[in-house]
Amino acid sequence: MIQTVAWITSLIFMVLIGIVFGWVALNSTKKEDYQPIIKKWYKVRKVYGIALVALMVIVTIYTLRDLPYNEPVYSAGVEPIIVDAEVLQFSWNISQTEFEVGDSVEFRVTTADVTHGFGLYDPDMELIAQTQAMPEYTNNVYITFDEPGSYEILCLEYCGLGHHLMIATLEVK
Ligand SMILES: [Cu+2]
Predict the structure, then answer these.
(1) Global pTM value
(2) Residue 156: which of 114, 118, 127, 124 has the closest Cα?
(3) CA 132 to centroid of ligand 1, rounded, Å
(4) What is the mean predicted confidence (pLDDT) over 111-118?
């Protein structure tokens, strides 16, 4: 959803900028007294600048208030199932791989050797959660399974020759 909005917004702004550039190019050969035009457009620029700063402040406040992003996505009071996910070149060691729809899970991700990437994919192979698997450090990933099927965990960081073999499957019934 947010990607679609960003994509459409970018497209609209690209078209607008294109129109302005075209307009300037087409009108650049006309000889005119520029003083009144300059005055008028300086005013427009000032209003545009202030509006842009105001918009940036609002968007910044709105998007930063959810920080830190790594908060549990399930409601408060829910006891998650703790799942240890330890990585080792080139396999996953997941303490539990079968779940039920509605289960809230907290993955505790770490690695016994080099850095890996923990990427959780839903049955449509869309990435729904990810974190870094780091030596001597545990990163938590929170997820609620709301759809049955086979979920896959893939390594998102190239970690050696067997990197592509690092696939673990979770079953959600
Ligand atoms: Cu890896």
Answers:
(1) 0.61
(2) 118
(3) 10
(4) 94
